[in-house]
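Weekly modeling sync, notes
Attendees: AB, CL, MP (scribe)

Item 1: holo prediction request
CL wants a bound-state model with coenzyme A before deciding which constructs to order. AB pointed out that an apo prediction alone won't tell us much about the pocket. Agreed to run with the ligand included and paste results into these notes for async review.

Input as submitted:
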Amino acid sequence: MSEDVLIEAVSEGVIQIRLNRPERMNALGHEMSGRLAAALESVVAAGARVLLVRGTGKAFCAGADLKERLGMNAIERAAHNAAINAFVDGLASAPIPTIAVVNGAALGGGCEIALACDLRVIASGATIGLTEVRVGAIPGAGGTQRLPRVIGRALALELMMTGEPITGTRAAAIGLVNAALPLEELDARARSLATVIASRSPFGVRRIKRLVYEGLEMPEREAVKRERECLKQVLSSKDYAEGLAAFSERRPPQFTGE
Ligand code: COA
């Protein structure tokens, strides 16, 4: 069995999907992309509270596998893209919080995987960018839409039109990632972030995620109305009852996500 996709238990409720093809800089082959989508489905079905996505070796992910792509005809190329998109779109719509742990180069589709996650932490010296125009392509896994939504239109256009990657340090300065830190501190930071989020009410965290993404696509007034409707469900949830009880009993809450 291929071991290019690994599912790793990190801590209570925290699971990591590892792109494990370091000899190709974790480039996304067609079959590997299918395995990533399947891994994502199984992690969500298993009830994980937080998902980390990381690469093995020097790179996070160097995008589509350009060597595999070279020998493909147009139909096969489209199918390859569809497989990558099934994973990246699945990540973007995952009900649970997701964190990209960008250990090294995140280029093209690799950057798009990171953009499809809710949070991103990166090694300061890593490079990240939508570099597709360098090879005559365009970002095709949500990059043209997600990058401007994260860093704004002008900077996103500059990065995509030049195809120049930037360092992790700069990515943090422009808000593309939540934090840039030395590589040796990266996993610890990602894990502590994930552990804190996993300890919070899953009922609340999942709803916050949905309200933010869906609300940003709506007029503010309508989005605020949705927030208030959602709040009604939250106020009668078991997690809220547990939070109130734990507060009054001066103990940590044990949330179940119901
Ligand atoms: N597809 C297939 N193979 C890839 C790859 C990709 N996207 N990116 C890297 N590799 C392979 C290289 O061909 C090389 O294989 P080889 O040893 O058999 O020659 C191996 O991974 C190591 O890459 P190399 O370029 O030697 O390492 P590096 O440290 O000098 O550079 C990168 C790493 C990621 C900066 C560089 O490989 C790169 O720019 N890759 C292309 C990224 C890209 O443009 N992605 C967008 C696709 S639209």
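Recorded for review: The CA atoms of residues 121 and 189 lie 8 Å apart.
Action items: CL to compare against the apo run; MP to circulate these notes.
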